[in-house]
Specification:
Order of helices and strands: EHEHEHEEHEEEEEEHHHHHHHHHH
CATH architecture of the largest domain: Alpha Horseshoe
Helix content: 40-55%
CATH class of the largest domain: Mainly Alpha
Strand content: 15-25%
Number of domains: 2
Distance between the termini: 83 Å
Largest sheet: 5 strands, mixed
Structural class: alpha/beta
CATH topology of the largest domain: Serine Threonine Protein Phosphatase 5, Tetratricopeptide repeat
CATH superfamily of the largest domain: Tetratricopeptide repeat domain
């Protein structure tokens, strides 16, 4: 089988060598350059990478990627789209070939977007950019996806392959909002595009639009529960920013209902219950950190898991007179953020409250 790795690029000179090293086992490496003004093209050609130059106006990611796919020779069997800042794990070719030999022609695999110093995966997602040369094309002007051109059913089995995404966070998001608005205009019923548009409004702090698109997304009635809940969390924060805390609380409740195994949704609910002094719901929601598992996708909020969830559980337990639990959760919060003076002060309050309750109980005996 012949394998091609292909991508689009704009001013990616610093990633060319890494991208080449990662994919050099392929039969063909192809870059569709979209107008680089740095040394991307020269560096790529020097390494033997096939480079074509394309122009897409107005800009759309799907058009650019389809041009790069169309440029691959007809005798290619397997296509792998890897962005310039992504790295394939060693030995990838044997894994991909084995999948195709078994008829797994459009497999899913892991892409890691955040990891610790020891390589521990912190955030990851399923990816799906390995596909046959023919019968597939890209769609959506942004957050584009590869999909079959017809109704062919694919097994979509997961393979033991990992791609590491060394995200370049210096790149501008200019144009993202306009392209997402276009995507939703083109396919109004697409939950994924509505979710991404909600997120982009969150990034640009457009509270009214966050809430509008969140309502629309909920009305669509389908989609990944975590993404649906996250849109509600952003709507809750937007409502609070507009001065409507109870409305924010209602959005947070909706988030917890949509994704009951996603602790970030319960944390949002606990947070707004705390602001409204609904201590029972705050405590019941916050303490779910004890039994829910931290997920590993891009929508995980590390602060929720490190100290904030424990802090809300401690505060609400204290208000409910459950002093031993307040002390327990307060210690966990401070352990996670030992330099936080507020958490340290709160812990002294919890200790004093527990001691006072014990003295009062002894006096009554």
């Amino acid at each position: 089988m012949k394998i091609a790795i292909y991508t689009i690029a704009l001013n990616e000179e610093k990633h060319v060598q890494q991208w080449f090293n990662s994919g050099r086992e392929a039969d063909l490496l192809l870059i569709a350059d979209t107008g680089s003004t740095d040394g991307t093209v020269v560096a790529a050609k020097a390494l033997g990478i096939t480079v074509i130059e394309i122009e897409v106006k107005p800009w759309r990611f799907d058009v650019a990627r389809n041009l790069s796919l169309d440029a691959l020779p007809e005798d290619i069997d397997i296509c792998i789209q890897i962005d310039m800042d992504e790295v394939l794990q060693p030995g990838w070719r044997e894994i991909v070939e084995a999948a195709f030999e078994k008829g797994n022609l459009w497999p899913t695999y892991q892409i890691v977007i955040e990891w610790g110093k020891d390589g521990e995966v912190i955030k990851s997602l399923d990816h799906f950019k390995i596909h046959p040369r023919k019968g597939f094309s890209w769609k959506y002007p942004i957050h584009e996806v590869i999909s079959p051109d017809d109704a062919t059913i694919y097994s979509r089995e997961r393979i033991p392959l990992t791609v590491w995404h060394h995200q370049d966070k210096t790149k501008s998001r200019k144009g993202y909002l306009e392209q997402l608005e276009l995507a939703v205009q083109e396919v109004p019923s697409d939950w994924r595009m509505n979710h991404y548009l909600t997120r982009e409004y969150m990034y640009t702090k457009q509270s009214e639009k966050i809430i509008h698109t969140a309502y629309k997304g909920i009305d669509l009635g389908y989609g990944w529960d975590v993404e649906r809940a996250s849109s509600c969390i952003w709507a809750a924060d937007a409502a609070h920013a507009l001065g409507y805390t109870y409305w924010a609380y209602e959005w947070a409740i909706k988030a917890s209902e949509l994704a009951p195994t996603f602790y970030e949704a319960w944390h949002s609910r606990a947070h707004y219950a705390h602001l409204l002094e609904k201590w029972r719901d705050c405590f019941d929601s916050a303490k779910k950190i004890d039994r829910l598992t931290k997920q590993t996708h891009h929508l995980v909020n590390p602060a929720v898991w490190s100290w904030w969830g424990f802090d809300l559980a401690a505060l609400s337990a204290h208000k409910l007179g459950r002093h031993e639990l307040a002390l327990y959760y307060g210690r966990l919060a401070l352990m996670a953020d030992p330099e936080n003076e507020r958490l340290a002060r709160n812990l002294t309050y919890y200790e004093a409250a527990l001691l006072a309750s014990k003295v009062s109980t002894s006096a009554q005996m």
